[in-house]
Amino acid sequence: MDTASSPRTPTLEDVAERAGVSRSVASRAINNVGNVSDTKRAAVHRAVRELGYVPNPSARALATNRVGAVVLAVATDEPGIFADAFFAQVIYGISVALERTDVTLTLVLAGRPEGAAKLRQIVRSRRADGIMLMNLHGDDPLAKLAEQTTMPVVFGGRPLGAEPQWYVDTDNRSGARLATEHLVEAGYRRIATITGQLSLDVAEARYRGYRDAMAVAELPAHRVEHADFSEAGGAAAMARLLEAHPDLDAVFAASDNMAAGALRTLRAWGRAVPDEVGVVGFDDLPTALHTDPQLTTVRQPIEALGAEMARMLLSILDGVRPTPLILPARLVVRGSTRPAADR
Amino acid sequence: MDTASSPRTPTLEDVAERAGVSRSVASRAINNVGNVSDTKRAAVHRAVRELGYVPNPSARALATNRVGAVVLAVATDEPGIFADAFFAQVIYGISVALERTDVTLTLVLAGRPEGAAKLRQIVRSRRADGIMLMNLHGDDPLAKLAEQTTMPVVFGGRPLGAEPQWYVDTDNRSGARLATEHLVEAGYRRIATITGQLSLDVAEARYRGYRDAMAVAELPAHRVEHADFSEAGGAAAMARLLEAHPDLDAVFAASDNMAAGALRTLRAWGRAVPDEVGVVGFDDLPTALHTDPQLTTVRQPIEALGAEMARMLLSILDGVRPTPLILPARLVVRGSTRPAADR
DNA sequence: GTGAAAGCGCTAACAC
DNA sequence: GTGTTAGCGCTTTCAC
């Protein structure tokens, strides 16, 4: 039959030989680059198919200085935060955006020092072509990563107090304003807020949006407690709010998880939602549907956030210089708020 | 100062030159392999430090046929399932186990056909040294992946009706038995169950555990509905159960999410939990703490599952032939069940 | 349009 | 112990 070729995985050389061309022609044909006659091109492609040839990524990477991988780094310390459905949705979006390319996704949890070190190691050894970086707290030294490397970095959300060259973010400030305006329009007046850690830009922006709306409505915005975006944190903050401001009649929580915690506390305190207290969350996670009552919230397009980050990074790698992208947030009204007329 | 060396990233050759040794000695010193005198070893390490040398992973991979990456493939179609806190915890466990190695984690969502194709592509081109594969349904062709490649595959959970060479799994059957026994001991008698998709081994095993316990208690085990591990699915299944078996006084749901859905339906139907109906879940996700009442459930060590998968894969890559690992599950009693004496 | 040949940066025999 | 050398499999000038 055939010359007894060993059953090792075929190389470009095997393809070239079988197609009766040189290695350089085979390479050009495979990568659709340079000039190759149609005859030879076809012969090469047939050989590729027959042999089941797959290029060796390491060899290619070595020759081209492109590894065909991007990393998603999530700067989160505790599993609790990462376990949030939020990141899963981001990852899903990225994954779909990468599916049709032959770029691979490397995931790094860069919250703990070991993880951050690993990320730096990846960067220094150029094990990836680019980085998507999320969930940076204000003081995180990783925020400076973009300046320390030539590898392109796309931020998911802005690091606090910085305006990176490339990022994708939700319009958090507007979203929070929408949420608060909705409470005002529903006739609530003594509106409190539960913020996330103000070392996160996203928390800061949502707090701003709350104050924007309160200022416009000429309502006092002093009923404020800070938490950490978690359900437990939201529950505790709600309790503090109720103690400090027993007269409050609504609360805007900067995440659905915190809103869920707030609902729990309100129930424990015997405050009826939405009749005595209106509650609005942020994110529109599955959580928002599972609470009782269901949460009025602000939907941010989380999967799209991931997909857009990936797309932005890929375009940068293709030589394009995109501009930052701000995704819109919109209000979703459910049972945890009700117009004054109906209460 | 120095000879005008270009500012490109240093190579092994640069290190060797600076340390005054040959490249092979430098390589041996760096990889702690073969014989190198202490003097030269020290010189090499100093040169490495001074130059900030980092080995080029592609070159190393090309030479050693080891790429220093493992993939986690999750065979999940819909974002909803992946968004489950479960996978996030698994990933966290894997990530921690990998932190101290210089092995990188590649994530592939292999549920959609494009994702599965991508996984196969990774395997064929050997872009990774090994695979962790999770959430396989009974009919998923990926289950055969392990037989089609020499790349080691560690399964997270068993594929239905198969006993792969390497896997890490929770003792789902025992866990489900514990859950059901707990209901029996609490004095519930007309105990129903909501299963996951029986095309998943994990659902099948938990269903078995339920029947085991019911058989031992000599109770009828015909109050059964099937769902898909989701909250919505659990809610719907609970409604079907209540219609078909209005007399039921307890339900074992094969996941916390389904149990949460069941709670929602029970509340809507005006059945008091735990006094009229006892409810037990499975997983001990954060969800279990956020329901009202909190869920009695079966805790499985999810982070450990991820960590053990990673450890198992690494040990295989080190030439060890480990045996499959079954992790224990244990009962966690909370408010959704109550002994008959207290009801 | 095509092919020869020189690397990419590393490791691993093998001879000294 | 140490250095020389031959690859790993690919891309990419550069002549023809």
TrEMBL record, chains A, B:
Q: Which SMART domains match?
A: HTH_LACI
> What InterPro entries does the annotation carry?
HTH_LacI, LacI/GalR-like_sensor, Lambda_DNA-bd_dom_sf, Peripla_BP_I
Q: Could you list this entry's UniProt keywords, alphabetically sorted.
A: DNA-binding, Transcription, Transcription regulation
Q: Does the keyword Transcription apply?
A: yes
What PROSITE patterns does this protein's entry cite? HTH_LACI_2
Statement: the UniProt record of this protein carries the keyword DNA-binding: yes
Q: Which GO terms describe its molecular function?
A: DNA-binding transcription factor activity; transcription cis-regulatory region binding
Q: Which residues form a coiled coil?
A: none
Q: Where in the numbering of this chain does the HTH lacI-type domain appear?
A: 10-64
What is the name of this protein? Answer: DNA-binding LacI/PurR family transcriptional regulator
Q: Please report the organism this UniProt entry assigns to the protein.
A: Allocatelliglobosispora scoriae
